[in-house]
Recover the amino acids of this structure.
């Protein structure tokens, strides 16, 4: 199959899966079989596209113009291929996990849940493979609309409130700010929105004031990147079931946000224009502020999902910081963070879900002694925590190394200290959780009893164990990954040597 047809297949498969799920809604085993088989086929298509990209090809598909100068164009380069691999690959893991969680927790409206999940992956892949800002914006909104029912899935007052905040914040920022930035770019670039290596706006006569205003519109209009103060939708969305939280934090939504920030920085502004834009330093400062404040707030949360939500806000800021460092190492560090954070944070959320299904515990203070009853879950949690912290041999170490290198090379010498401070705060709010789980409950020799006979369903344990293993495996694959990303980030990836700790 030709690369352009592979793009079309990758876009059509999630829609076909959604239709199959709807048709098989009364037969749970068939419904979930459609999800699993379809997601595996989708990953195979995306891998074939990634292989073509690694061989120097640029898969391209034009579906025609919605209006003069506004075409639905898809073009896959290495950064987009990485995001597509993350979204399609982790969808399989999340699907297995969802089966165990949704059945074990006896959730309602499971058919609607799986249908919306398929549409969300459709939106994420459209974002990943977009060839211009118009296409990206359309699929960005598809992703927002398809995930709203997932956030409000439970249907109670808290879920409805969280869903409203989610929808209004993301639509408000994207229509009010992001769309404005897109239209302004279209005007500045002579009715062109294509992603161009080196930057669409590079070489144009754009004043520092204009480039700063445009950068601010993009940075705060891409609300899914959760840069403070446009971050509050994310903690409010934690009312959703845990598989949805994993989708929000690892598979699609926030990754689509930071991917868009990186894509705009590299292919719309370009390194040279970003370096010449005064607003770059302001956004870099806001990203550093978000890293520290998000971590400090996380430390105050006893609810595990709330703590992980603020951790995500802080960790997403690493990608924005990498984009604003605006050199090869910064772009590479931010891109690596997309993959490393995805597997690490997905593991943490799936562990939280397994604990909830087994015991009903949602607060960290309730988890004392549970490590003795659920050892595999807490071992996975510990490994993922080390990756988020950035300790070798975990994947997260490389992202922080490259970001520090980029900041030093670019003269942003305060950034490495912020990253070190952030890592120390990561230790403070993550490692006490598995340590507490090993301690016996006060006044009782036994930890909290399981509410479900046999504890967590096997799928809710196997899935985080698998992604925890990926945290280690990715560390040793960072050399090939950096080489793969080099055409997008602007050079060779010499700083990373596979198997050598940073």
């Amino acid at each position: 199959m030709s690369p352009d047809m592979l793009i079309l297949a990758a876009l059509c498969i999630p829609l076909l899966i959604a239709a199959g799920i709807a048709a098989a809604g009364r037969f749970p085993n068939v419904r979930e079989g459609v999800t699993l088989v379809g997601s595996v086929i989708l990953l195979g298509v995306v891998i074939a596209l990634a292989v073509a990209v690694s061989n120097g090809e640029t898969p391209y598909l034009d579906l025609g113009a919605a209006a003069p100068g506004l075409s639905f164009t898809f073009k896959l380069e290495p950064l987009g291929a990485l995001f597509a691999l993350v979204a399609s690959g982790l969808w399989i893991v999340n699907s297995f996990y969802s089966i165990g969680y949704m059945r074990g927790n006896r959730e309602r409206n499971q058919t609607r849940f799986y249908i919306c999940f398929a549409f969300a992956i459709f939106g994420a892949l459209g974002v990943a493979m977009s060839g211009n800002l118009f296409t990206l914006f359309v699929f960005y909104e598809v992703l927002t609309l398809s995930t709203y029912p997932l956030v409000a899935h439970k249907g109670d007052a808290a879920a409805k409130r969280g869903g409203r905040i989610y929808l209004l914040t993301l639509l408000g920022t994207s229509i009010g700010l992001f769309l404005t930035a897109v239209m302004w770019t279209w005007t500045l670039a002579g009715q062109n929105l294509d992603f161009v290596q080196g930057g669409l706006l590079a070489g144009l006569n754009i004043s520092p004031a204009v480039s700063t205003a445009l950068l601010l519109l993009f940075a705060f209009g891409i609300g899914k990147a959760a840069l403070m103060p446009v971050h509050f939708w994310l903690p409010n969305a934690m009312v959703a079931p845990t598989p949805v939280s994993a989708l929000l934090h690892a598979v699609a939504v926030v990754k689509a946000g930071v991917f868009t920030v990186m894509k705009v920085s590299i292919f719309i502004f370009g390194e040279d224009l970003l370096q010449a834009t005064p607003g770059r330093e302001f956004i870099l400062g806001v990203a550093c502020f978000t890293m520290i404040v998000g971590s400090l707030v996380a430390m105050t949360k006893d609810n595990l999902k709330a703590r992980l939500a603020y951790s995500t806000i802080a960790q997403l800021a690493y990608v924005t910081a990498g984009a604003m460092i605006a050199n090869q190492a910064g772009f590479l560090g931010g891109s690596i963070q997309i993959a490393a954070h995805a597997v690490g944070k997905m593991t943490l959320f799936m562990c939280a879900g397994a604990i909830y299904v087994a015991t009903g515990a949602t607060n960290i203070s309730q988890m004392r002694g549970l490590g003795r009853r659920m050892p595999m879950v807490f071992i996975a949690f510990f490994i993922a925590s080390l990756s988020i912290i950035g300790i070798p041999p975990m994947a997260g170490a490389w992202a922080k190394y490259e970001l520090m290198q980029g900041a030093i090379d670019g003269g942003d010498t305060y950034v490495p200290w912020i990253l070190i401070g952030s890592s120390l705060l990561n230790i403070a709010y993550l490692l006490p959780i598995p340590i507490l789980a090993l301690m016996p409950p006060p006044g009782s020799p036994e930890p909290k009893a399981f509410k479900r006979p046999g504890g967590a369903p096997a799928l809710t344990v196997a899935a985080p164990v698998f992604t925890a293993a990926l945290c280690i495996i990715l560390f040793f694959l960072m050399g090939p990954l950096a080489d793969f990303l080099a055409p997008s980030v602007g050079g060779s990836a010499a700083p990373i040597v596979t198997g050598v700790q940073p």
